[in-house]
From TrEMBL:
UniProt xrefs under SUPFAM superfamilies: DinB/YfiT-like putative metalloenzymes
Protein name: DinB family protein
Lineage of the species this protein comes from: Bacteria, Pseudomonadati, Bacteroidota, Cytophagia, Cytophagales
Transmembrane segments: none
Domain of life the protein comes from: Bacteria
InterPro entries according to UniProt: DinB, DinB/YfiT-like
Record-stated family: Belongs to the DinB family.
Keywords: Metal-binding
Amino acid sequence: MHTSSLQQNILAELDHELANTRRVLERVPFEQADYKPHPKSMSLWQLASHVVNLLAFKTLFVNANSRDFLDPNAPKPGPTPTSHEQLMARFDEYSKTLLDSLHSSDDEKLTKHFQLTRGEQVLMDRPKGAALRIMGLNHSIHHRGQLSVYLRLLDIPVPGLYGPSADEQGAF
């Protein structure tokens, strides 16, 4: 009987979601970087950069045991990419780092806890695998969904993520 490990499950899901995220990011037009569908919304470029930078956050869940948002010495993503090429290069770099970290990990490490804090306030305390799933993948999927709405509002064909999109079917 073959059983699948926590690590294998996360890697399989991550492979699928990274491919989908790449397809959305490839369509983000840098020429419309300042676009906002609403005054309270992030700009298109802020949102696309956030989706990419979340990959570094997921890597932190694998490699570290905690992160304090108030720690001035904590790792932070690099400067905001200033071109589509830079955005995609960062996506590729951060994706590879995350996948390498997960491949170097194992189920035992992924069941150890990760704590996210803001000073003394505990924001999250979960097993690393759960943190990856909830604060990592779900968070990224949420923002990728927002990004796909921005594409739709800009009349840019939206890629199908879990089946063909209306653009790919020629519907609507």
